[in-house]
Amino acid sequence: MFRRLLIANRGEVAVRVARACRDLGISPVGVASESDFGARWLEAMDEVVCLGPSASRESYLRMDRVVQAALQTNCAALHPGWGFLSENPRFAALCEQHGVTFVGPPSSAMEVMGRKAPAKAAMRAAGVPVIPGSIGLLSSVDEALACAREAGYPVILKADAGGGGRGMRKCFDDAELRAAFVQASAEAESAFGSGALYLEKYLEGGRHIEVQVMADRFGNCVHVGERECSVQRNHQKLVEESPSPVIDAATREHIGAIAVRAARSIGYVGAGTVEFLRADDGSIYFMEMNTRLQVEHGVSELTSGLDLVKLQLHVAANGRLPLAQSGIQLAGSAIEVRINAEDPAQNFRPSPGTLAAFEFPRELGPGTIRVDTHMQAGDSVSPHYDSLIAKVIAHAPTRAEAIETLLRCLRKARVEGVSTTLPLHLAVLDSQAFRAGEYDTRSIPGWPVPAR
Amino acid sequence: MSREILYLRVRTEGEHVVLESPSVGLFTEAAAAGIALVAEAKAGVLTTLGRAYELRVPEGVAGLVDGVLHERVQAPVGFGTALYRLRPLAGALYDSEDAKSKSPSDGALVFRAPSAGRFWHRSAPGEPALVSVGDVLEAGRAVGLIEVMKTFTLVHYQPAGGLPPRARVVRIVPTDGAEIAEKAPLLELAPA
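ok -> C-alpha cells follow
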C-alpha cells in the first residue's frame, strides 16, 4: 500500500478520501487554494501544499503544480476526487509520467469516455444498448436523414464537442432536420471550433439510473447495484437512492451485467459509474460513463456495506478485488440528499456565508443516518467553489423507512447562517410522487413549495 | 536558453517586505543575506515538474535581504511560502556620505545611481521618457533604466538620504544612453 497520498481536491471529497487513507495507514497530503488555506477541513491532512490563488484555474486545475506538489511531498499516489482534474486524461497521463500512481482508470479509458461520439461507438461495439441514432459522426445531411428515419422522429442533433445544452436541435420531420443540420453544424463550428454532429432519437423525460462498478488490474470487475438520480434540477442531482423503485431484481442483474461489460470493454480499472436512461417504455440505454468516484457513492456503500474509496486505493496499489459478484449482497434502501448552500426560494441562488449552526441529529430512527461533510458551525462557505456543504444519507430495511428516517433527521436539522436546499428536500421526501416512486428527470416531485 | 520568468509575490510586514513564492516547486539559487533586491533583480530559481523558472523581484520593491527563509538547496515550497524578508533599502545604499546629496550645483538635491552602467531615459526604444523635467516624483516611481551586461534594471526613486518624499525634477543629468558610475548624479531635484 502507498505510504503517502496526495488528495488533489478540496472540501467534502478531500475529507472522505483522507478518512479512507487513515483506515489503510496512508498519510494523506492535502492541497489548497490561497483562500482555502487554513480551512478547518485541512486538519484531516498531515501536510498541505498551497497551489495558487482562489480561482480554480490558477490552483486546483493547475496540473503542473498539483503533480509537483505530489512529488515534493513524497506521495506515491494521487486521488483526484470528483470534478476538477478527475476526468482529465492528460492529467492522469502526467501523473503516470512522473511516477505518481493516479487513483483511477488508465488515461486511455478516460479518453474514450470523455467524448460523446467515441464513447457511444465503443459501447455499441461492445454490445451495450445505446440510444438509436447515428454510428459516430454524421458526414452529410443525407446520412442524417437516413439515421432519423431508422430511429424514428423526433430526433435530436448534438454537437460532438458540445455541452450544457448548446449545439442541440430537436427535429420532428425531414424538413426540420434538413434546415437544422446546416444551422447546427455552423453553430457548433463557431461555438466549439468543430462542426461535427451526431444524431439520436429524442427521448423525453425518462429516469436516470446508474450502475456503480469496480474493477481491478487483473480483469476482475463487479457491480454494486444501481442508484436512481432522477430528482434533478438543470441536470444537477439533488436526491439519489438505491435501489431504484423501478428496477426489479432481473433488471438489476441485466443492467449490472451491461455495466460490467461496458467497463471491461475499455480496460477499466477502479471505481466508475455507467449512467443509463430508462425510457418510459422501460428500455434501458447507455448515456455515459463517469470515470471517477461519484458524489453519491455513499448510497451504494450503505446498501452493500463496502467502502468504495478503500477499494479504489486497494486496486490502485495493484491489489485484487477481494470479492466476486456473488459476494456482493445488497441490503435495505438508502436515500441521499445533497445539502447545497443555495436558496431554493430565490431560484437556487448561491448563498455563501458563515454557518451559525450546523447539526443533523442521527439518533431519531427508525433507520441510520450518515452525514458526509467537511464543515461545522463557525465555518465559512466559500464563494469560490461549488455549493455542496453536506450529504445526508439514510439507510433502513425498506424504502418507506428510509424516507421516514431522512425526514426525521432533516426536520430537526439546524442549519443557520446560509440558505440551503433543506426545504426543497423536505418537500420532495414528503411528496406523494416521491413516496410512490413515480417521478422522472423532467420535474422535481413536490416542488415548488407553496409560498410561505 | 532563456528561462521563463515568474515574479515573486509581495507582502508587507511592518516596515519589512516579504517576498513569497508565486508557485509550487523546488526553490534554489536563493539570493544571500545582505544582497539588495530591487525591481527585476534575479532572486532564485523555482523548478516545477522539471521546468526551471527564474524568480524575479517585481516593480516597486527595493530592500536588503534580511534573512533567506529557505536556505536549503531545492527546498520544497508552495504558493505563498515566504522566501525572503527584506529590510528597507533606506539607510543602506543611499546612506553613504556622498549620497547625503548636497549637490554639485548650489543646494539642489541630487538623486544618484544605485549602480554603475549605462543609463537610459526610456523603458524601450520609442517609448516616452520615464520622467521629464517638472515631474513630481514619489517613492517607487521609475525614473530610468540602468543597463549592466545586457541586463536592464529599472531605477526607482527612493526618498532616502535626505531626499524628500515628494520631489520635482529640475534636471536629468546623464544624457540618454550615457555611461555612468555608481552614485553618479541622475536627477537634480527640488522639494515639491
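The first strand of chain A starts at residue 4 and ends at 7.
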